[in-house]
Structure formats: structure tokens, C-alpha cells
Amino acid sequence: GQSLEQPSEVTAVEGAIVQINCTYQTSGFYGLSWYQQHDGGAPTFLSYNALDGLEETGRFSSFLSRSDSYGYLLLQELQMKDSASYFCAVRDPNGQNFVFGPGTRLSVLP
Amino acid sequence: SQTIHQWPATLVQPVGSPLSLECTVEGTSNPNLYWYRQAAGRGLQLLFYSVGIGQISSEVPQNLSASRPQDRQFILSSKKLLLSDSGFYLCAWSVTVPGKSPLHFGNGTRLTVT
């Protein structure tokens, strides 16, 4: 089966940089995804890494190390609107399911 | 462009009553469809997924069921709700080929069983 671990909470101030880590155990691997969910809302897709290295999308970057079964989401120039929960996810070896980590709640302080 | 519709947005139901939540997708064909449940402040639990009409896979044994009567329609049902069925129910779709294609979620249904 698949399991993912993330820190439960992270706090940072506006303008800072924060890193949210994710470690995973999978019997197969189709890449690591990140989703953002604001309170009361639905998760929205942020980024995807299939290969090792850094993927950058604006203020957000995502990193993957397949040998370490580890990835992280990097948020730069934090804004208040970045306060949300962030989930890492992997795709099941059968290729059809998505398994999510427990989520990290990010609080951005003024 | 693809859109996903999920309704109702909120629902309050008494214990023992039936449930029917509906989800439809537009702008794509033969999508994978998913039902997730999220308890307050918790992660996403996969309940059911479907790779085609009439094909349903259940991930968690429970008193819920799912059906896919049409290619882009996914229904979550229960004959008798339990208090533990309260939560935030999310429908989602993805393309069938593994890879970069992400999950696209509907706006969710907040269900309270009283």
C-alpha cells in the first residue's frame, strides 16, 4: 500500500519562505503531487514531480528525490492568502487511485 | 474546458435517512471519477473510484455505495445514514492515463447527520 507523512502544522510570517516536507512509502511510483485547500473549499492542484529535481511555478516550487522517497513544497514571499492546508499525494501503482497525505496546515502571520 | 458540478453544497439529514449526492463532469470523455470524504480538519479518504460506466471500486467498507449510470455522472448513496457519515464529500475526476494529470475536485458537499 501507500502511506505519506507530512508535518501537521507550519507557521510563518508574511514575506518569509516556508518548506513543507512529505515522505512517502509506495509499492510503485507515478509522481508526487501537491494540492492546496482553503478552509471550507475544495483542494486545488498546485504542482507535480515525476522526476528528481525542482519544479518552479511562480512563488511555489516543488522538489522530489525518488531515492529518498521525499519531496517538499516551497512557498516564497508568503502572503496571507497562502494560509491553507497543503496535501501531498501519490498515484496508486494501478495508476487509477490517488492517495493523499494527512495534510499540513500553514498559518501565515502578519 | 472541463468543469465538474457537485450538489447539493450542504445537507442536513437525520440518522437513518437515505442519501444521494450527484456529480457530473463536462468537457471530457471517459474520465476516472472519485468520491472522497474529509472529516473536519483531517485528510482525504478515498471512498470509491470508477474507471468506466458501471465499474465501481470500493476502498473502504461502509454503508455507502456508488454508481456510475452514465460516462460523466457519479452518484454516492446510502440507504440509512449513520452519525459517522458526517463530513465533507468531494467528487473528483482525472484523465485515465497515469502521469501528470491531476485530480480536479468539485466544490464539495458538507453533510451533517443529526
Strand content of chain A: over 45%
Percent strand of chain B equals over 45%
Q: Helicity range of the residues of chain A?
A: under 10%
- The computed structural class of chain B is mainly beta
- Report the largest inter-chain contact: A-B, 24 and 25 residues
- In DSSP terms (H or I, runs of 4 or more residues), the helix count of chain B works out at 0
Order of helices and strands of chain B: EEEEEEEEEEE
Rg measurement of chain A, Å? 13 Å
Shape of chain A: globular
Integer-rounded radius of gyration of chain B:
13 Å
- What class would the helix/strand composition of chain A place it in? mainly beta
Please count the beta strands of chain A (DSSP E, at least 2 residues each). Answer: 11
Can you characterise this structure?
The complex is a heterodimer of chains A (110) and B (114). Chain A is mostly beta strands. Chain A has strands at 3-5, 9-13, 18-25, 32-37, 44-49, 53-57, 60-65, 70-75, 84-91, 98-100, 104-109. In chain A, the strands form two sheets. In chain A, strands 2, 4, 5, 9, 10 and 11 form a six-stranded mixed sheet that branches. Chain A starts with a strand and ends with a strand. The mean pLDDT of chain A is 93. Chain B is mainly β. In chain B, strands 2, 4, 5, 6, 9, 10 and 11 form a seven-stranded mixed sheet that branches. In chain B, strands 1-3-8-7 form a four-stranded antiparallel sheet, with no helix packed on it. Chain B has strands spanning 3-7, 10-13, 19-26, 32-38, 44-52, 55-58, 64-70, 73-78, 87-94, 104-105, 109-113. The model of chain B has no long low-confidence stretch (mean pLDDT 92). Chain A binds chain B through residues 30-31, 33, 35, 41-45, 48, 50, 87, 89, 91, 95-103, 105, and chain B through 32, 34, 41-44, 46, 49, 51, 57, 59, 90, 94, 96-100, 102-108.
